[in-house]
Amino acid sequence: MLKILKYSFYDLMRSRWSYVYFLFYLLLGVVLLFLNNDLSKAVITLMNVIIILVPLIGTIFGVMYYYNSREFTELLLAQPVKRSSIFLGQYFGVATSLALSLVIGLGMPFVFYGIFNSNAIWDFSLLLITGAFLTFIFTALAFVIALSNENKIKGFGYAILLWLFMAVIYDGLFLMSLLYFEDYPLDKFSLVATMLNPVDLSRVLILLKLDISALLGYTGAVFQQFFGTNFGLILSFVMLVFWVVIPTFFIWRIAKRKDF
Amino acid sequence: MKNKFYILFLLIGFLSVTNLWSKTITVCATCPVKSINEAILQAEEGDTVLVKKGIYKEANIKIEKGITLIGENMPTIDGEEKGEIITIGADNVTLDGFKIINVGLSYTTDYASVRVVNSSGFTIQNLELEKLFFGIYLQKASNGKVLNNKVRGEAVTEFNSGNAVHLWYCKNVEVRGNDVQNVRDGIYLEFSDNITIKDNLSKNNVRYGLHFMFSNNNFVINNIFETNGAGIALMFSKFMDVENNIIQKNWGTAAYGLLLKEVNDAHIKNNLFFENTVGITVEGSNRLEYANNDFTSNGYAIKVKGACYENRVIDNNFLYNSFDISYNGRINDNKFNNNYWSNYTGYDLDKNGIGDVAYRPVKLFSYIVNRTPETIILMRSLFIDIIDFSEKVSPVFTPDDLMDENPRMKQINHDRN
């Protein structure tokens, strides 16, 4: 598996797309910092970018990579290599290179700007960590979609739909249900609903750092325990790990049974 | 000429005689006078009682004449929880340099470390109060000073703790340079007018850092209020000046930087509100002026609850607050002008430093959160941004005239010393 991971990784590192992706984040970081001149504001803008753009790029790139490398995959399948190691290796190769582009691309301008001497360092590292998590989660979901759809157009369609659902529609439904059931105690429901969407989960994780004072304004024992202590932070991270592990498991399972 | 000399001699003679009259009584463990109570009994109007370093186990010290009571090297007066420790009932009393501990706790009487009753011209300074119920309790007192005292309480709940500096029916009192921590209310005023509260530090108090009830014409200047239940609570008061204060880190479900309830004609200027759950919460307050303040990193900068008319919010900085303004209702009679809003996204084509598009500080989302508080968990979601944007374009739920017509493009530099 490690060998295939290495191949995929080096293949991507040589490809144009990783550089485009890397340069995009580099440019974004530079523009945010040096035109804005305000670190706190830059971190907030960055959060919006990360929770929207990273999942989008992760999904599209994952699907694209799978369909493009199909011939190579079929060649590998003819060799005496375990199926799981082929697909998991490819998946980790893609996700790692994407995550690296993100972390290095965004990290560099901030390091040059002097993030180490600023107290925004924790907010910033949290941003990068959740960004990396989101990359892994959505690439995995993209692989699951691509593996279960032979048709490229269908696969792309589902992938984009998945992103749209997670990033926008889910929150819309969430808000509607909260407003509709406003007479009932909703704090447990809303926490569970947040856990079930990785985009919301990362958003809340970052909110815990940035907007904690507003979140504390709400009187609810469950929210209080969640936001007021480290409990929320730990639980969110655990859920993010679950969100990586479960789709990865699906990749493994589908790959094992799939007929090529 | 001779006459004048005569008068001069007479005057000098008179002065020296009065000087002789005002004597100093020293109290210490090895002195003839061993207790403070005894010294006060011996003392007469205008005398000085000098207390040397040591521990004096005395309670119910009553000062009924205008004397000066001075502690040398912070002697300790231990009340042994027998009730009130020092009661001042005469004019022109000075109390300086004591450590006063162990006031009795009672649910029927407000025992205080130092109580001033019906007196004027008092000075209470350089005291250290610990293990207290009420600290310095002024009732119907006037023209006095409470300076540089240090109060450290151990308050946990509101119902069995007292206030550090408590003013009831007082006039013209100066409260300056005090450091009050861990009590119920740091400084409390009820029915007290013309009080100056300056350079105090009020921190970690269970309820409010500073609390006004029915008190008018007071000045609150250069104070620091930190991590209290609420920084300043102004209630049912008029003509207040709140200037140059730092109000920060008041976090919690019912925590405010500044709570205004039924307050009219007040000026709130040059203050810094930093990291409070709610910077200012206002209810039923009219003709207030909020100018030159900095609202930085608060949950809500200003939360307007209702019945607030003719208020002016001018030349303030609103920086990185989760919500700038939260507003109830559709009618607005308050004016927002020339503020800097870090969330402003407009442009300035004529380069005059004022944005060409008006800024709407009330978001639809804050309206939704008011209705269903749990929705706060959706903050900063893309969907919320989309509905906020559509509300901004055509306001339906928020008052359409609540906007800053002249938002600044650059942050204002307020002189703050």
From TrEMBL, chain A:
Keyword list, A-Z: Membrane, Transmembrane, Transmembrane helix
Record carries keyword Cell inner membrane: no
Entry superkingdom: Bacteria
Keyword Metal-binding carried by entry: no
Transmembrane regions: 20-36, 42-67, 88-112, 124-147, 159-181, 201-221, 233-255
Protein name: ABC transporter permease
The species this protein was found in: Aequorivita vitellina
